[in-house]
């Protein structure tokens, strides 16, 4: 799958977003190492802490289908003038499974930048940090 195809899958997912409070609809398309793609959109809640980000929705779908190794993710919001970057919580969730995955952050005009996740979340908290 090309970058543009993955970005289009994320853009399509953003159309399903439930964002009545922020008006900031986000879509994500998560490509697994086996080539399978899972999409997600943000789902806001009046109790803001209960809101689910698009990236976390895509990860939950992938994990629930038995996938745990990810190659890259595209994150899109048509309403953003800046690149749509994953929040800190989403960076941590993605890092749990694939700390070296690629992140495609897309602006509303379709331009995008690419980062390795470990560039965005260096010194991540991981299973090596847990006491055993």
Structure report:
This protein has 132 residues and is of the alpha+beta class. It has a single domain, classed as Cytidine Deaminase, domain 2, CATH 3.40.140.10. 28% of the residues lie in helices and 21% in strands. The chain is built from 4 helices and 5 strands. A 5-stranded mixed beta sheet has the order 2-1-3-4-5. The radius of gyration is 14 Å and the shape is globular.
Structural topology:
Elements: H1 3-14, E1 27-32, E2 37-41, H2 54-64, E3 70-76, H3 88-97, E4 102-106, E5 112-116, H4 117-120
Parallel strand pairs: 3-4
Antiparallel strand pairs: 1-2, 1-3, 4-5
CATH topology: Cytidine Deaminase, domain 2
Q: According to CATH, what is the class?
A: Alpha Beta
The end-to-end distance, rounded to whole angstroms, is 39 Å
Low-confidence runs (pLDDT<50, min 5 residues)?
A: none
Overall body shape: globular
Beta-strand residue fraction? 15-25%
What's the architecture in CATH terms? Answer: 3-Layer(aba) Sandwich
Largest sheet: number of strands, sense, barrel closure: 5 strands, mixed
According to DSSP, the number of beta strands is 5
């Amino acid at each position: 799958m090309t970058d543009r195809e993955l970005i289009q899958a994320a853009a399509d997912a953003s159309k399903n977003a439930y964002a009545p409070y922020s008006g900031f609809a986000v879509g994500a398309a998560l490509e697994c190492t086996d080539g399978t793609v899972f999409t997600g959109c943000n789902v806001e809640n009046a109790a803001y802490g209960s809101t689910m980000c698009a990236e976390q929705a895509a990860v939950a779908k992938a994990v629930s289908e038995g996938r745990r190794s990810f190659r890259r993710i595209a994150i899109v919001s048509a309403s953003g003038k800046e690149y749509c970057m994953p929040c800190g919580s989403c960076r941590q969730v993605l890092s749990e499974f694939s700390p070296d995955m690629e992140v495609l952050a897309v602006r509303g005009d379709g331009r995008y930048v690419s980062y390795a996740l470990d560039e965005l979340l260096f010194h991540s908290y991981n299973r090596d940090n847990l006491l055993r």
